[in-house]
Amino acid sequence: MEIPIKTICCIGAGYVGGPTMAMMAYKCPDLIFNVVDINKERIAAWNNDDLSKLPIFEPGLKEIISNTRNKNLFFKTEIEEMIACADIIFISVNTPTKTRGLGAGKSSDLKWVEACARQVAKFSEGQTIVVEKSTLPVRTAEVIQKILDSVHSNSNSKGKSFSVLSNPEFLAEGTAIKDLENPDRVLIGGEDKSAMLLLSEIYARWVPKEKILFTNIWSSELAKLTSNAFLAQRISSINSISAICEVTGANIKEVSRAIGKDSRIGSKFLDSGPGFGGSCFKKDILNLVYLAEYFGLKEVANFWEEVVTINNWHQKRIAKIVVKKLFGTISQKKIVILGFSFKANTNDTRESAAIRICKDLIEEGAELVIHDPKVSPQQIEIDLQMKQFSEIKNENTNYSNNNVGNWRFSKNLNIFDNAHAVLVLTEWEDYKYIKWDQVVKTMVRPAWVFDARSIVNVALVKQTGINFWCLGDGSSNNEISDF
Ligand code: NAD
Ligand code: UGA
After folding, report:
1. Probe target for ligand 1 pocket from 35, 75, 94, 178, with the most ligand atoms within 8 Å of CB
2. Exposed e or buried b for every residue in 355-368, given b needs 16+ CB within 10 A?
3. How far is the CA of 336 from the centre of ligand 2 (A)?
């Protein structure tokens, strides 16, 4: 089918807008994709000739960008013009949890979505398909449609008409390109059958038709929230069981493997870790909680809220274990933190478990040396709301008189000298190959390795005699050796 569509605009050049449009541009060389954003620096970074300076890191993204950018994919700040010439507009802006007012702490802040809808209403021309790509509370499409329709009360509506569709994104960071190229499903919710068909024809260029699902618009919005809630629930479930493993002598990896063999349960998303992070799981569950509360479904709301409660408890639990194992005090003890992003293969730190855990350790007086292959020290400074130790020193602040610890960043892994402990928080591949027999020689004894991602080579660490704690491993060394 020939698509009577030539130009597509995506509002929001973030973790979703950027890679999603890049993949579409790659698969549809005959269509034009304009990605716009109010953040000029972000757009400049997307246009940087040096592809290692793109605003987000995703394996495979550079290659796709180099194939499409300035051919049929453009990153721009001219939002109004790009809206005016678009046949389809994807709304891919941020939808964080509200921090104040009605629904604060739970419901989504839709001010960016509303601003987009108003811009589309004002600047679009002719017939436009408006697609919700952002994750939104159920019935947001109604709000968008109302804002768009409000132009009809305006004398210069110039024959405008709109169809609103829901097409949530299911990519995971770190595997975004793989997920976009080979999605489990593409979900299109709406009422306007011809608009739904047009959108599906774009995906059908590379996604098998049986994977493209059509639903009503509310099911599509709710399916996205539910999908994230189910995934997060699995992680809270397995993390809660890891705590039981530690006190009973069971091993969470063995338990996961055993239950994952049940085809009804399946083996994916059963890795225990320091608690789920990322910009979406917590926000989307809280959104679901808010929705349930709004409709008076208190028990449903409580059920889903527990998933977040367990996650918070679990993150706190890890910092407490470190303190306890280091004789109850970590004041002025050097602790090496391996990994700060919320998962491997991304530079994103939003809601990373490392933030909570590092803050707790600093609060206890530890001196952290943080390594991450992709996260910048500037980002860590924002997340920890604290400057690096070297900068505090340069400002001549009286840092030695308080009991709070500090942190500094290291680009390389020559950081183990005089460390009391190493704590692995992100499963970066590099950390699997650390030569523990060399590392222990330079550490303070008794030395500890805490592995919250179960990626360290246990046999290698244990050979060195170093004390080892692994999340969910009830058999790991509970006695403190001289190492
Ligand atoms: P992001 O914060 O990385 O990007 C959003 C971008 O929108 C920002 O660059 C911001 O400047 C821009 N923006 C906001 N208002 C604008 C406006 N009026 N005009 C132009 N630009 C505007 O967010 P993200 O991670 O890409 O997430 C976007 C949405 O997608 C969210 O609803 C999220 O829940 C959902 N989602 C995210 C992921 C993910 O992996 N990050 C996956 C699936 C779905
Ligand atoms: C998640 C979903 O997987 C995507 O389908 C969804 O599109 C996206 O949220 C979204 O809506 O934003 P993402 O947060 O990028 O993707 O990454 P995940 O792989 O889901 O990991 C989330 C967190 O769970 C990470 O902190 C990760 O380390 C943790 N995790 C994941 C575990 O602790 N154990 C696991 O087995 C899997």
Report:
1. 94
2. bbbbbbbbebbbbb
3. 25
Q: pTM of the full predicted structure? A: 0.94
The alpha carbon of 471 is separated from its chain's Cα centroid by a whole number of angstroms, namely: 22
* Radius of gyration, CA atoms only, the chain: 25
Q: What are phi and psi of 227, to 5 degrees?
A: -60, -50
- pLDDT, tens only, 38-56: 999 999 999 999 999 999 9
Cβ(93)–Cβ(11) under 8 Å?
yes
**Residue 51 contacts residue 65 (beta carbons within 8 Å):** yes
Number of CB atoms found within 10 A of residue 295's CB: 11
Residues with CB under 6 A from ligand 2: 135, 169-173, 228, 231, 235, 269-271, 273, 276-278, 280-281, 342-343
Query: What b-and-e string marks burial along 61-97, b requiring 16 or more CB atoms within 10 Å of the CB?
Result: bbebbeebbeebbbbbeebeebbbbbbbbbbbbbbeb
CA distance 266 to 67: 37
pLDDT tens readout for residues 121-172: 999 999 999 999 999 999 899 999 999 998 776 666 768 999 999 999 999 9
